[in-house]
Amino acid sequence: MKTLKLDISNLDDHRKVAQQLLEFAGEQRVFTFDAPMGSGKTTFIKSLCLELSVTDTMSSPTYSIVNEYHTDFDLKLFHFDLYRLKNPEELFELGFEEYLSSGNYVFIEWPELANDFLSSFVRIIINTENNNRYLYAEMFTSR
């Protein structure tokens, strides 16, 4: 399995780390984010959005479930926060499969309910070790 570990302790390094993560991901455009509340998932996703030339104002989709952003390159980016959803059927009702198959970037916070919908993706884990924050990336391809 292809993996990557990056230090994200310093906010000033997030754009550089985002670039490294996108290079690691290659053509993969679906990313899941596993981390505790308050660990910096949304903050890091904003850095990814900046690196992808998002032109819209970015915010957490906690209440809207999904935010859609546009880029300078005619791509869309979909940012999901699944924390408030109770079951996978709610994803089906949202048209989640269409987002995944759109060819656009899809960032998913709290992805547990989405597991059955995913075949290929980059799994991001953010955790703290010795007062430093690290991003771990694992590439999953077609189960």
Q: What descriptive keywords fit this protein?
A:
alpha/beta, seven-stranded mixed beta sheet, Rossmann fold, 4 helices, single chain, 143 residues
Going by CATH, the architecture would be 3-Layer(aba) Sandwich
Largest sheet: 7 strands, mixed
**Number of helices in the DSSP assignment:** 4
* CATH topology grouping: Rossmann fold
Helix/strand order, N-terminal first: EHEHEEHHEEE
**Largest sheet, spatial ordering of strands:** 1-7-6-2-5-4-3
Our Rg estimate from Cα atoms comes to 14 Å
End-to-end separation: 12 Å
The fraction of residues in strands falls at 25-35%
CATH class identity = Alpha Beta
Question: Could you outline the blueprint of secondary structure elements for this entry?
Answer:
Blueprint: E1 3-7, H1 14-25, E2 30-34, H2 41-51, E3 66-70, E4 76-81, H3 88-94, H4 96-100, E5 105-109, E6 121-129, E7 132-140
Parallel strand pairs: 2-5, 2-6, 4-5
Antiparallel strand pairs: 1-7, 3-4, 6-7
Helix pairs in contact: 1-2
Would you give an account of this structure?
A hairpin with a 2-residue loop joins β6 and β7. 24% of the residues lie in helices and 31% in strands. The two termini are 12 Å apart. It has 143 residues and is α/β, with parallel strands linked by helices. It is globular. It has a seven-stranded mixed beta sheet, with helices on one face. The chain has one domain (29-130): 3-Layer(aba) Sandwich (Rossmann fold). The protein is built from four helices and seven strands, in the order βαβαββααβββ. It has helices at residues 14-25, 41-51, 88-94, 96-100; strands at 3-7, 30-34, 66-70, 76-81, 105-109, 121-129, 132-140. The mean pLDDT is 92. The longest helix has 12 residues, at 14-25.
